[in-house]
Each structure stands twice: as C-alpha cells, then as structure tokens.
Description:
alpha+beta; elongated
Amino acid sequence: MMTKKKKMASAIVGLIGILTLGTLLHTNTIHLPFERTIEVRLVDGLENDRVLAGVAHVIFVGKVTKKISQTMGETGPLTQFDVQVIQNIKGVLSGNVVMNQEGGYENGILSVVEDQPLLRVGTTYLFAARTDGKGNYLLIPYQRARMVISTDKKLTSAQLSALAATDKNVLAM
C-alpha cells in the first residue's frame, strides 16, 4: 500500500510531466508527425515559366544558410530563412536576403501550403518570389517557384554559380 507521501510525490511528478509536455508542444520543441496542407488560390498558368516570371518580382539562385524564425502570417505560420544570393535572373539582389515561406509548425503540427515542404538549410534553390518593396521576400507557393539546384552543403558560391549556369530550369527562366 502506498503511503501518503509516495502518492503525493507521484502526483507531483505526473503533473510536472504533463506541464512539460504541454510547454514543449506549445513552443514547437516537439515536432509531431502531423501535417496539414493549406490551399491557396494561385494565378492560373503558373506551370508556364513566362507566367511565373511575370508574377515574380525577383527570380534568383540562392542557398538557404539558416532558419531565422517563425511568426504567424495571415493564413498561418510564416517561416523565415536566411538565403545567400548566388545568381540573379530577374531583379538585382546581393549578399543575403530573408526569404519568407508560408508554412511552419503550429502547436506541433506542420502546416504547409500547396503540399510544398519547408525549405531545407544547406540546399540551393532557384527561387521565384514577390516583395513588398521593403526588402521582405515571400516565396510564391508553387512547386516551380522553388526548384532544387543542389543539396550539397559543401559547394562554394563559385561552384554553385557554375552549376546554376548549366541547370535546365535556370536556363528556362
């Protein structure tokens, strides 16, 4: 038979466990394998590179260097990434820019837009994005607006630029 002290200690340990789990879920420290897709109304014809290029304010090759933060946007989570500009195609960018992507974790559940996974750190992409004119870039939520050029984290900017120069998707843009 449990003594009163043992019952009290068990109850306190259980309560601490429940509070810890709740805190970790709320702060997205634990990422559960749940996912939800947010569908948005896109411009018709984005599968055509000319239409996509017309909708985009900037098109460039960039390497994701790190995830910066996550905030709440109009449709749900908005994840921000630091991206090193490798090559401009439309617009003039240099150095590093902040790329905002709709999607992220909310209460342990990954929300993505149009089945587009979150950007991966170390991966180099061909990006098509829009800007608000204040230096904030939002990735267009369409598969051809973020095409992988390389997943090799060790390539230098010069090597990535040379790789981009021969990439069929970069050439098509």
